[in-house]
């Protein structure tokens, strides 16, 4: 194989790997700009060596793949990616190409030039006078046409390539593409982009989004097919809320809202998707009945009238000058939006012109994404320290010379885990590039001077816990482990297949053994580790959990140092150690009184808060609330089996407690340690039960009303509907009686409908229910 062929293959493999991380696993390891640079490099090589372009090259296809777990659906019209640019000049070059292809004068000139060329070919070999004369006339005409063409283009450039109908500029919302199909105005199918040809059927998940209308308004019901394309995204406040819950449940936080969206859409249980606060914005079309809309700007207008959400910041721009002005203006504005935007998408507005421009193998020619570069800054890496989490996880953190980036001064960046740190080969003294994209925590992008002489040795990760000297436990990337484990099976399968087909087997190469590069986590397994204890107590006492007034980080450290606290229970025994407490630095009588009162008050927070406070893996405030409501007391919870925990329904609907959560809570409750902790808390008089939903609000539009919910609602899970009823002052019931005020019926409502009719209980559909919640008439 030639060097170039090898280089192309290596690059393609590398890009393919990044695609998988980005689209399938939703955890990219390089920035978009670096990714785009790799792709550009490949494109250049391939352009010079067209014979080496493989049909599955990343330059020839769109990155995602449909997932096995969902039904794959073929798109009626392909879903494309969009070409990127980071420079104003690329944008004007793009506009020029569009202009040349659609401006009537240039098109006329080009077709005449083509005609001249054909005539010239016809004259080839003829040497007589007539032919010479014809040739001269032809050349003169060609020169004339070329001059006219240049003039026309020069003028167009000055005016900003004023294409007929102009351009449309819209924010490029950073989310996940989806196609939504409406037939006679009803939502019938939602599909991800997948590989552009086939995507995943995510209809059920999309139905849970409030911004996805299940039925369109106005003229839409008279139109056979309306297929729109849009972006599903997670607004910033939802992203922060979801991350707070994940962190408090001991799970890894989402890296950014886009990854969070991709993850939530891939959930098999729509109730979980519903909990992520996703939203939709429509920005394009798939198949739409002919004659319905003629341009991008008209489409957006019609969508609004049909009740489909579009971006109010979209604007028609007559020229590239206006486009660039929009881009500049928007760079300021995007900071204040409550959703992530990574650029501006510009499109030729008129659909007939779009059709004339057509597509390349990956992109529409009539569309371009202008991307804002993520703010990055170089700085020096001073040290790497290890942070302890409440589950015992040790996370490497870079300490750097402070640097100003994306609006704040940054001096720490996370390195995630030892694998990541080793793959980036980050060492002390390096100049590193850091960035803050949609993420809250700054990231180290890469080392800028990896070939510098006299570089320090790689940092050796701790083999024992830096706080308690217990040997650490190392975990490796699950996917790599499966790959290694499954290799013999793959070899065998190939041999069998080859034997059947009567050919030489071509067994897959043996995957390399796991190394430090595959490390995904390092843990201190010692439950009594003081560093973990501090993190756990800190979590236990915080707001969303036991909410103990006066027990902050500093006080916890003091208590641990003085040996006054070694467990959660010890907190509730502190009143016996009053004398010791007063002696602590900066404490004094009054502060001790406050602290002890805070601890006393926390005793009655109830089971849900206690479960959330214990830092059990995967158990955050949502899961603990569902569990406490369902079981009512610790004893009832203790009596439940794993299979019951994972399958119980709250009033006929999925509880949202999947197998992972069920196993985690079960194991904790029945572990020696869990039992000891909970028994201790029980003896100390901590309330380990939960009042059933009687904690109704004392005001609201539903005050004093009882509502029963049945069937599947599009906008909420059963639990959420109940929570909304309570928040509005009402009482959610489970069985119908004469005392029931309303029956809220979703899809597949079943026998309760007949019973309601019998009892004379009014039935509400979802829209009427929402109207009632909002304080109006149903
Ligand atoms: N960092 C990595 O490892 C990595 C890996 C793969 C891809 N990527 C990034 O993803 C890009 C490719 O992803 P892509 O194919 O999804 O392209 P893209 O995200 O750059 O743009 C295309 C998408 O933009 C969306 N979009 C948002 N607002 C829109 C609007 N108003 N109008 C039209 N479309 C709009 C559409 O859903 C469309 O599918 C790469 O260029 C790279 O930047 C990064
Ligand atoms: Zn330890």
From TrEMBL:
NAD(+) binds at residues 32-36, 81-82, 170, 193, 231, 347, 371. The keyword DNA repair applies. Signal peptide: none annotated. It is an enzyme of class 6 (ligase). Keywords: Coiled coil, DNA damage, DNA repair, DNA replication, Ligase, Magnesium, Manganese, Metal-binding, NAD, Zinc. CDD domains: BRCT_DNA_ligase_like (cd17748), LIGANc (cd00114). Zn(2+) binds at residues 524, 529. One of its GO terms (molecular function) is metal ion binding. It comes from Botrimarina hoheduenensis. InterPro entries: BRCT_dom, BRCT_dom_sf, DisA/LigA_HHH, DNA_ligase, DNA_ligase_AS, DNAligase_adenylation, DNAligase_N, NA-bd_OB-fold. Its EC number is 6.5.1.2. DNA ligase that catalyzes the formation of phosphodiester linkages between 5'-phosphoryl and 3'-hydroxyl groups in double-stranded DNA using NAD as a coenzyme and as the energy source for the reaction. It is essential for DNA replication and repair of damaged DNA. Residues 697-778 form the BRCT domain. It catalyses: NAD(+) + (deoxyribonucleotide)n-3'-hydroxyl + 5'-phospho-(deoxyribonucleotide)m = (deoxyribonucleotide)n+m + AMP + beta-nicotinamide D-nucleotide. Its cofactor is Mg(2+); Mn(2+). Pfam families: BRCT, DNA_ligase_aden, HHH_2, HHH_5, OB_DNA_ligase. One of its GO terms (cellular component) is cytosol. GO terms for biological process: DNA repair; DNA replication. Residues 113-151 form a coiled coil. The active site is at 172 (n6-amp-lysine intermediate). This is DNA ligase. Belongs to the NAD-dependent DNA ligase family. LigA subfamily.
């Amino acid at each position: 194989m030639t060097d170039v062929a090898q280089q192309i293959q290596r690059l393609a493999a590398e890009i393919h790997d990044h695609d998988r991380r980005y689209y399938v696993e939703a955890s990219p390891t390089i920035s978009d700009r670096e990714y785009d640079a790799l792709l550009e490099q490949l494109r250049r090589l391939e352009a010079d060596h067209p014979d080496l372009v493989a049909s599955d090259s990343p330059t020839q296809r769109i990155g995602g793949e449909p997932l096995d777990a969902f039904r794959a659906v073929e798109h009626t019209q392909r879903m494309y990616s969009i070409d990127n640019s980071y420079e104003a000049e690329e944008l004007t070059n793009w506009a020029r190409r569009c202009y040349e292809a659609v401006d009537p004068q240039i098109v006329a000139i080009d077709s005449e030039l083509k005609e001249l060329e054909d005539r010239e070919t016809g004259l080839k070999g003829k040497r007589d006078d007539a032919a010479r004369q014809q040739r001269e006339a032809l050349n003169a005409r060609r020169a004339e046409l070329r001059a006219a063409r240049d003039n026309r283009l020069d003028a167009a450039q000055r005016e900003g390539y004023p294409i007929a109908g102009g351009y449309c500029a819209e924010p490029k919302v950073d989310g996940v593409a989806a196609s939504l199909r409406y037939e006679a105005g009803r939502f019938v199918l939602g599909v991800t982009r997948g590989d552009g040809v086939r995507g995943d059927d995510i209809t059920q998940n999309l139905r849970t989004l409030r911004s996805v209308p299940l039925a369109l308004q106005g003229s839409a019901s008279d139109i056979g097919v309306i297929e729109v394309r849009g972006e599903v995204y997670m607004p910033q406040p939802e992203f922060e809320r979801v991350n707070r819950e994940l962190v408090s449940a001991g799970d890894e936080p989402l890296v950014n809202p886009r990854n969070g969206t991709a993850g939530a859409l891939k959930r098999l249980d729509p109730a979980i998707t519903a909990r992520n606060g996703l939203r939709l914005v429509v920005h394009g079309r798939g198949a739409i009945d002919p004659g319905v809309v003629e341009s991008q700007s008209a489409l957006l207008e019609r969508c609004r009238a049909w009740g489909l959400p579009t971006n109010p910041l979209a604007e028609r721009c007559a020229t590239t000058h206006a486009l660039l002005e929009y881009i500049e203006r928007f760079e300021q504005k995007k900071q204040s939006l409550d959703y992530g935007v990574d650029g501006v998408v510009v499109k030729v507005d008129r659909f007939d012109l779009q059709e004339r421009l057509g597509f390349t193998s990956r992109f529409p020619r009539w569309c371009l994404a202008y991307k804002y570069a993520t703010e990055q800054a170089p700085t020096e890496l001073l040290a790497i320290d290890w942070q302890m989490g409440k589950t015992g996880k040790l996370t490497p953190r870079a300490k750097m010379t402070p640097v100003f980036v994306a609006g704040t001064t940054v001096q720490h960046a996370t390195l995630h885990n030892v694998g990541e740190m080793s793959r980036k080969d980050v060492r002390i003294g390096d100049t590193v590039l850091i960035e803050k994209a949609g993420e809250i925590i700054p990231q180290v992008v890469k080392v800028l001077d990896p070939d510098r002489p006299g570089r320090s040795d790689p940092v050796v990760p701790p083999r024992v816990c830096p706080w308690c000297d217990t040997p650490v436990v190392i975990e490796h990337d699950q996917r790599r482990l499966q790959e290694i484990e499954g290799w013999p099976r793959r070899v065998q399968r190939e041999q069998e297949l080859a034997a059947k087909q009567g050919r030489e087997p071509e067994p897959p190469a043996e995957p390399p053994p796991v190394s430090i590069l595959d490390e995904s986590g390092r843990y201190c397994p010692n439950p009594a580790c003081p560093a973990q204890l501090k993190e756990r107590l800190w979590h236990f006492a915080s707001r969303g959990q036991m909410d103990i007034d006066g027990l902050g980080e500093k006080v916890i450290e003091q208590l641990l140092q003085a040996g006054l606290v070694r467990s959660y229970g010890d907190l509730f025994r502190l009143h016996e150690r009053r004398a010791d407490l007063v002696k602590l630095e900066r404490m004094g009588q009054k502060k001790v009184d406050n602290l002890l009162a805070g601890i006393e008050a926390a005793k009655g927070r109830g089971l849900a808060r206690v479960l959330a406070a214990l830092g059990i893996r995967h158990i955050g405030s949502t899961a603990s609330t569902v569990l406490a409501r369902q079981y009512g007391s610790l004893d009832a919870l203790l009596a439940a089996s794993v299979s019951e925990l994972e399958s119980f329904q709250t009033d006929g609907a999925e509880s949202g407690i999947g197998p992972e959560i069920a196993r985690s809570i079960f194991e904790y409750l029945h572990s020696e340690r869990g039992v000891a902790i909970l028994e201790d808390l029980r003896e100390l008089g901590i309330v380990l039960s939960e009042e059933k939903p009687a904690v109704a609000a004392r005001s609201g539009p539903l005050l004093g009303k009882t509502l029963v919910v049945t069937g599947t609602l599009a906008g909420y899970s059963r639990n959420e509907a109940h929570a909304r009823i309570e928040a509005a002052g009402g009482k959610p019931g489970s069985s119908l009686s004469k005392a029931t005020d309303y029956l809220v019926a979703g899809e597949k409502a079943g026998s309760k409908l007949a019973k309601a009719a019998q009892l004379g209980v009014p039935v509400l559909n979802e829209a009427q229910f929402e109207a009632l919640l909002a304080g109006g008439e149903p």
